[in-house]
Amino acid sequence: MSGPARVRADFARREVVDCDRLPWQASPLPGVERRLLDRIGDEVARATSIVRYAAGAVFAPHEHPLGEEFLVLEGCFEDEHGRYPAGHYVRNPPGSRHAPGSREGCTIFVKLRQFAPTDRQRRVVDTRRGDWHPGPADGISVLALHDFGAERVVLQRWRPDARLGSHRHAGGAEVLVLDGAWEDEFGRYPAGTWLRLPAAGAHAPQTADGCLLWLKTGHLGATAG
User: What is the distance between the alpha carbons of residues 182 and 16, in angstroms, rounded to a whole number?
Assistant: First the structure.
């Protein structure tokens, strides 16, 4: 018998994906398609994806036994708990249940089944109204989204010509470039690029024109595999 589907499932590897070049794949629900960034499992999977809802698409009520987090990239996502226009970050903890959909259509960046079992806080952040604070270097500001144990999720706004010295991320890191372009000694990453950076790798990032990043750190060692 074949094992579960595996997409970029070696968490010790550095990965760089231009999301716009990935094909849209159908989900079991008509009107919902996805681009697979990483995945271990079939329809019940540890997964990181870009998911697109057509206008009017609705899922049946279902549970997230190992949690779900997402960032609304376009349109408006909704469920019985509220409406989440573009810029909203939502965490639905292990054991939560909802019936998601979108009357107008939307695109979300979503991570499934990647919570620590004891991380039980539901969280909703409208990043358009959040409080930004000075970041790790001049020209970088940070909007905190979630902290639990070693895991940290933030938005980072980099001004033109901002840079960081060479460093590693303990526990690894994931980055989604939301606007502008980010770069390091290995390449340039325009908006729509997803990166997974293992703990073993160092880099010295910078930006010439400025950028906006979703950044998650400290989580790969606990959830990989």
Answer: 12
Contact by Cβ (8 Å): 107, 89: no
**Could you tell me the CA-to-CA distances from 217 to 22, 33, 56, 122 in Å, in that order?**
24, 27, 34, 19
DSSP characters over 40-56: EESSSEEEEEEEEEPTT
Q: What angle do CA 107, 93, 112 make, to 5 degrees?
A: 45
- Dihedral Cα 154, 159, 163, 167, nearest 10 deg: 0
Domain extents in the chain: 11-126, 133-223
For the stretch 59-106, pLDDT in tens is 889 999 999 999 999 999 999 999 999 999 999 999 999 999 999 999
11-126 CATH, one of 3.40.50.880, 3.30.420.250, 2.60.120.10, 3.50.30.20: 2.60.120.10
Contact 123, 145 (CB under 8 A): yes
Domains 11-126 and 133-223 share a fold: yes
pTM for the whole structure: 0.94
Question: What SS3 state is found at 212?
Answer: strand
Q: Which CATH architecture has domain 133-223?
A: Sandwich (2.60)
